[in-house]
């Protein structure tokens, strides 16, 4: 045995074995499917997680959920504390939903709690984020809904609402703190008769929750902020506001959105925003009208446009009042009017910005054939 | 290296001694006039072997004796070609009487003895200074059946057999060109087996023919029993996991390769043709591709190439995922996999090695046993063990799926040799995946790719249409385009004429 042989062997073994510290055997991991953060006294964090386990037998698979709650100083500290009471290695790599309690986001900056998610390479960047009315713990403590674990249930719920274009697609990655110039909004969840349900949206001013919208409002909000998508459905009441016969509602399905946002600065100080929205919609439900007549259809188009314009104006006012810049006006100013941006105090200026909002609507389809 | 050379050459001193003694008795010996002397000499030269027959003859041509080796001659032929005509004829010259296709006159008895070993009988008449050597071999051929290990659904159903002449005949029947050349050799100092290389004189690279000729002649060994031994002698890199010589038992595959300018090596006693030079992709071509239509052929060929990746990488990938990178599993599948691996006591690499070895054992056991028992071994092994091992909780369900898929994929390769190398290659890949995760797989694949690019089969690039890139050759390596588009032969065989079909003939329809 020459010395060279021994050296080669040593190097080979050393190279091969150096990866073993990084090994993370799937069978030893306990993966969290939903995590929640709530306010705790003295600025501490109250973290609740649900660990989902699946047992596979020949008859099929069965899900179980295990809930842990700890009070900790930070997110990473919470992870350590949960690991202390969990058998196996705690892992957040398969987190599906991250919930914030309403009180926490109203009173605290949440960005420090998210920091660890942007550092860990195994971080679940595609996990959805939502705000829970009351506390997140209360929602997670439901444990199972039907035969679904709470994590899976909330994730599927949010996913289906995203597909319906009722709430925006928000995940940990889109919430990145370096992405400045507009304010984010999160879906709002509540427990309704023992079942989690989407209630609307939570609008943020910077990092604080300042206003909530119901689902009807949030759909218009999505259209205005450019987050809306195809298949966004709205049920509107274009005329006869006080009649209640069932004939007064029209449901439209948005097929195509053309949105133009223009930020105009007059005389280097007055900021004006011109927001034009052109929609091509399909009418899916309209018991009162017979839309084969062009005049009836054009009339309906006009009425719907007016109603949507009214709604939009209301929502823009709400946003301004709450200090929520969902349209990203600030980013335009940063980009195109940097001198002005440096001079003004945006927090004070934003509610005074004049919005000129206009929605026009065109019906492209009224029946089954597309 | 001193360690290895000592290990492999420990009996050199012994073999030197015998090598010196081997050529003692090969001096000339003239045929004696007395038959008795000749018979005695032959008996001594063959060390009184028991199958030497001595039939005294008294006929009108004279008094003599017929000597032959019972074990290699056909008694019916002796009767038909020698005895019957001799006794019927008068005093004519035996040369004009004997009806065998090969009758020779020899004055050297040593030469006659050599021929006796190949199925000749020796006739000597009292007083003659020469003997007649007549060819009466006993021929015992099996039918030219379809080879068991290279079945084709459509196309020719014949295969090579152990007789080289029959094999040459199968090739000649298909290639009518007078350019088809056979070079014969006699290999092995003790075995003296017949061998030949076959090539098309106007296609095969003459330098390559000379090179192979040189290599075959340079083999200096006592025993060369079959072509597989020659293969190891002439192959450039014996320790490469990839075979550099194509073995096939199918005449149509051999002929197809000859027509692309390659060279085939045939040997008596081996039902296989060895084909050089080959590239990696030749191992993935099957006669079935050419016998079916182009779309089907291309699809199946691509599927086979894809199976190469499954066969070497799938277990490694699975191991890397469940022991390092479980976050890449889509969330819908994640809990299913997690649920089944959660209670397995062993790390995935042990699980995988256990199952892979079990499959290899099953394969080997099933192959050694006769067909009816072989099947029941498959059932016992595959179903019973596979099921029980999961129920007991030693191996997880996904691992069973992975191992089974891998096993199936490794059997798709049309060449048995390549199938072995694919099965061997996945073990280092699995180990590197278990040690280093995805990085390990990448390192190993890089090593394999580098090796494939460096490797040569008789001086021709092994990874041919890819590693010296030649898009034209993809037409018949990765894909199988219709024959009218294959106007050129592949480059890697260095054939003398590249064009094999012209699409602009006078009066012909233009495509």
How would you sum up this structure, described in words?
The complex is a heterodimer of chains A (370) and B (511). Chain A is of the alpha/beta class and 370 residues long. In chain A, 31% of the residues lie in helices and 36% in strands. Chain A has eleven helices and 15 strands. In chain A, a hairpin with a 2-residue loop joins β7 (144-145) and β8. The longest helix of chain A has 29 residues, at 294-322. The mean pLDDT of chain A is 88. In chain B, α12 runs antiparallel to α16, α14 crosses α16 (397-410) and α17 packs antiparallel against α18. Helix content of chain B is 46%, strand content 12%. Chain B has three domains: 23-135, no CATH class; 164-278, no CATH class; 292-461, no CATH class. In chain B, strands 1-2-4-5-3 form a five-stranded antiparallel β-sheet, with helices on both faces. In chain B, strands 6-7-9-10-8 form a five-stranded antiparallel β-sheet, with helices on both faces. In chain B, strands 11-12 form a two-stranded antiparallel ribbon. Chain B is of the alpha+beta class and 511 residues long. At the A-B interface, α1 and β2 of A face α12, α13 and α17 of B. Chain A: One of its GO terms (cellular component) is membrane.
Which key features would you list for this structure?
heterodimer; A: 370 residues; alpha/beta; GMP Synthetase, Chain A, domain 3; four-stranded mixed sheet; 11 helices; 15 strands; globular; B: 511 residues; alpha+beta; 3 domains; five-stranded antiparallel sheet; 18 helices; 12 strands; disordered C terminus; palmitate (chain A)
């Amino acid at each position: 045995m020459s010395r060279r042989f021994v050296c080669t062997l040593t190097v080979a073994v050393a190279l091969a074995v150096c990866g073993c510290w990084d090994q993370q055997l799937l069978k030893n991991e306990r993966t969290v499917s939903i995590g929640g953060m709530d306010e705790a006294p003295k600025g501490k964090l109250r973290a609740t997680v649900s660990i989902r386990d699946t047992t596979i037998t020949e008859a099929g698979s069965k899900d179980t959920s295990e809930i842990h709650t700890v009070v900790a100083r930070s997110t990473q500290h919470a992870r350590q504390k949960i690991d202390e009471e969990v058998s196996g290695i705690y892992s957040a790599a398969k987190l599906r939903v991250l919930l914030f309690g309403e009180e926490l986001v109203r009173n605290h900056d949440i960005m420090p709690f998210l920091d660890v998610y942007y550092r860990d390479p195994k971080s679940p960047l595609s996990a959805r984020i939502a705000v829970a009315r009351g506390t997140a713990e209360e929602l997670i403590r439901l444990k199972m809904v039907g035969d679904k674990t709470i994590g899976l249930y909330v994730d599927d719920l949010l996913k289906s609402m995203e597909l319906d274009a009722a709430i925006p697609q928000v995940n940990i990655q889109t919430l990145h703190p370096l992405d400045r110039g507009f304010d984010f909004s999160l879906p709002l969840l509540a427990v309704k008769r023992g079942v989690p349900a989407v209630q609307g949206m939570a609008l943020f001013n910077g990092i604080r929750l300042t206003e909530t919208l119901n689902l009807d409002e949030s759909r218009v909000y999505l259209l205005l902020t450019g987050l809306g998508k195809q298949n966004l459905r709205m049920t509107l009441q274009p005329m006869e506001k006080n009649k209640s016969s069932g004939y007064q509602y029209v449901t439209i399905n948005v097929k195509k959105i053309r949105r133009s946002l223009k930020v105009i600065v007059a005389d280097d100080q007055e900021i004006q925003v011109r927001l034009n929205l052109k929609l091509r919609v399909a009418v899916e439900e309209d018991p009162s009208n017979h839309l084969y007549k062009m005049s009836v259809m054009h009339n309906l188009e006009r009425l719907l446009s007016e109603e949507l314009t009214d709604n939009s104006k209301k929502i823009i006012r709400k946003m301004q009042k709450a200090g929520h810049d969902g349209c990203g006006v600030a980013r335009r100013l940063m980009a195109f009017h940097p001198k002005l941006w440096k001079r003004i105090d945006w927090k004070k200026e934003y509610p005074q910005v004049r919005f000129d909002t206009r929605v026009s609507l065109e019906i492209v389809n009224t029946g089954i054939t597309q | 290296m001193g360690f290895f050379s000592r290990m492999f050459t420990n009996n050199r001193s012994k073999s030197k001694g015998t090598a010196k003694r081997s050529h003692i008795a090969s001096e000339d010996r003239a045929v004696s006039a007395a038959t008795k002397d000749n018979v005695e000499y032959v008996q001594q030269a063959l060390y009184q072997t028991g199958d030497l027959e001595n039939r005294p003859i008294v006929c009108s041509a004279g008094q003599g004796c017929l000597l032959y080796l019972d074990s290699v001659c056909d008694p019916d032929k002796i009767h038909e070609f020698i005895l019957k005509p001799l006794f019927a004829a008068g005093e004519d010259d035996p040369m004009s009487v004997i009806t065998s296709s090969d009758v020779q006159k020899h004055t050297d008895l040593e030469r006659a003895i050599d021929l006796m070993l190949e199925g000749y009988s020796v006739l000597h008449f009292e007083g003659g200074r020469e003997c007649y050597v007549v060819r009466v071999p006993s021929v015992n051929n099996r039918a030219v059946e379809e080879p068991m290990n290279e079945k084709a659904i459509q196309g020719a159903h014949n295969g090579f057999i152990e007789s080289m002449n029959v094999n040459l005949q199968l090739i000649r029947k298909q290639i009518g060109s007078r350019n088809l050349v056979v070079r014969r050799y006699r290999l092995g100092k003790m075995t003296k087996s017949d061998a030949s290389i076959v090539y098309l004189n106007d296609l095969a690279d003459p330098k390559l023919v000379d090179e192979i000729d040189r290599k075959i002649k340079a083999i200096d060994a006592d025993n060369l029993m079959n072509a597989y031994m020659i293969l190891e002698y002439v192959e450039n890199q014996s320790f490469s996991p990839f075979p550099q010589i194509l073995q096939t038992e199918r005449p149509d595959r051999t002929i197809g390769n000859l027509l692309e300018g390659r060279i085939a090596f045939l040997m008596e006693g081996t039902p296989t043709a060895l084909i050089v030079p080959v590239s990696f992709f030749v191992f993935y071509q099957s006669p079935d591709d050419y016998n079916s239509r182009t779309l089907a052929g291309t699809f199946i060929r691509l599927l086979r190439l894809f199976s190469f990746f499954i066969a070497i990488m799938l277990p490694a990938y699975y191991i890397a995922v469940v022991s390092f990178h479980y976050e890449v599993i889509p969330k819908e599948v994640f809990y299913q996999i997690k649920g089944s691996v959660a209670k397995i006591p062993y790390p995935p690499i042990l699980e995988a090695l256990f199952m892979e070895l079990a499959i290899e054992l099953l394969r080997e056991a099933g192959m050694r046993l006769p067909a009816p028992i072989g099947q029941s071994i498959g059932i016992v092994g595959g179903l019973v063990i596979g099921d029980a091992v999961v129920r007991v909780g030693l191996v997880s369900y996904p691992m069973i799926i992975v191992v089974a898929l891998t096993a199936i994929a490794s059997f798709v390769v049309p060449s048995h040799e390549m199938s072995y190398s694919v099965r061997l290659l996945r073990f280092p890949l699995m180990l590197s995946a278990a040690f280093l995760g995805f990085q390990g797989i990448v390192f190993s694949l890089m090593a394999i790719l580098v090796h494939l690019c460096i490797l040569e089969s008789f001086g021709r690039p092994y990874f041919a249409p890819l590693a010296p890139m030649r898009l034209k050759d993809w037409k018949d390596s990765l894909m199988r385009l219709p024959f009218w588009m294959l106007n050129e032969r592949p480059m890697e065989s260095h054939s003398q004429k590249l064009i094999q079909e012209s699409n602009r003939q006078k009066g012909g329809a233009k495509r």
